[in-house]
Specification:
With about 160 residues, the chain is α+β, with helices and mostly antiparallel strands. The protein is built from 6 helices and 6 strands; from the N terminus they run αββααααββαββ. It folds into 2 domains: about 15-85, no CATH class; about 90-160, Aspartate Aminotransferase, domain 1 (Alpha-Beta Complex). The protein has helices at about 15-20, 50-60, 60-65, 70-85, 90-105, 130-140, and strands spanning about 30-35, 45-50, 110, 120-125, 145-150, 160. The protein starts with 16 loop residues before the first helix and ends with a strand.
Amino acid sequence: MDECHATGVFGKKGGGTPELFGLEGEIDVISSTLGKALGGGTGGYTAASQEVVNVLRNKGRPYLFSNSIAPPVAGASIEVFKMLEESTDLIDDLAKNTAQFRKGMKAAGFTIAGHDSCPIAPVMLGDARKAAAMAEELMNHDIYVIAFSYPVVPMEKARIRT
């Protein structure tokens, strides 16, 4: 299961999709990132049985040709998991901010893709030039967004991702 957009976001304590659907301990392989909700900015992990991990260590090309994450990133990520275990405040705030942003953007006439509970809120613009121009203008106002257009997304589905 690819949890790169769910770890630290979904589930009562940020445990991702397995926690959200009550499937903890039932997923054979979980891969995720330390660079999104956990704030590490780099690196990721695969959680699986020892047998699967051994195969990945010996045969997985990304593992063979990459470096380990920096110790401070590992330490910070472990601390974030502890924080999420101790309090739901961060998850609760994210849910409130997500609802407010999505509601406000829709009220302003924008089409926002994805489920209303998802904090990754693609603002659908259709035209690649329009998406790039909007991203640039928002950056001029210290609002960090990324424009995506073909071939990253389908033709005529250009967007900014917030």
